Amino acid sequence: MPHILIVEDENSIAETIIYALETEHFHTTHVTTGAEAIAKHDSHRIDLIVLDIGLPDTTGFEVCREIRSSNSTPILFLTARDSEIDRVLGLEFGADDYVTKPFSPRELVARIKAILRRTSPPKSEAQSNNSTKALSVDKNAMKVTCYGNPLDLTAHEYKLLSTFISQPGRTFTREQLLEHAWDDPGSAMDRTVDAHIKSLRAKLNASSPHCSEVIQTRRGLGYCYQPPIC
Ligand code: CA
Question: Cβ contacts of residue 115 below 8 Å, gap of 6+?
Fold first, then answer.
């Protein structure tokens, strides 16, 4: 049973999260301060941390920094302001995902399950060979296979898809995708990314219906990759 540490100083929000998680048979521990969060994390086996950014004694960013200095426990941030989203998306804190308040408990649980799916063992193997069960990247050959079948991708499509697969669940802004997949990002435009995503989705869909929705649009933010379940 996964053990989720909930770091949230607003009890009503914490209770909603606890109810949603325990309904799905997660084990939860709730704390309200950053100091308690670090102490619990150090003394218990924690599978994932739901971390509010605005805490009474510190910020969620500082708690994340402290935990990340020694441990890679997955962290999902709860954000309340656009300025916080920018910092989370900048990934300077190594967060695995975030949700913005107010959020639907169902969406939160779905995100937590997705993070646990991709971070549960064999994590090191998944990170080292950069593969998922359905989609697999061969960096040397610069090819991606979908259920063992090679995809016929352009250079930009290959770079986009391998960028996504390297960090499942991460939301990339269009600017970040341009930086990863274009040699001269300044010469391309945001809608260039959209056009390539469209063709990439079509190729993935043609290869396997399981892969038709792996690249998801995050409205107003960018795109993220969710590995197919099958
Ligand atoms: Ca708070």
Answer: 48, 74, 76, 96, 97, 169
Q: What is the pLDDT of residues 194-222, one digit of tens each?
A: 999 999 999 998 888 778 788 989 888 89
- The reply to whether omega before 122 is within 30° of 0 (cis) is yes
- Measured in Å, residue 70 CA sits from the centre of ligand 1 at 25
Rounded to whole angstroms, the Cα distance separating 142 from 130 reads: 12
Question: What's this model's pTM, rounded to 2 decimal places?
Answer: 0.54
Ligand 1 centroid–CA 34 distance in Å is 11
* Residue 72, CA atoms < 13 Å, CB-side half-sphere: 8
Dist. CA 7 → ligand 1 center (Å): 9
Cα 79 from Cα 83, distance rounded (Å): 9
- Burial per residue of 53-88, b for 16 or more beta-carbon CB atoms within 10 angstroms, e otherwise: bbbeebbbbebbebbeeeeebbbbbbbeeeebbebb
Map residue 224 onto helix, strand or coil: strand
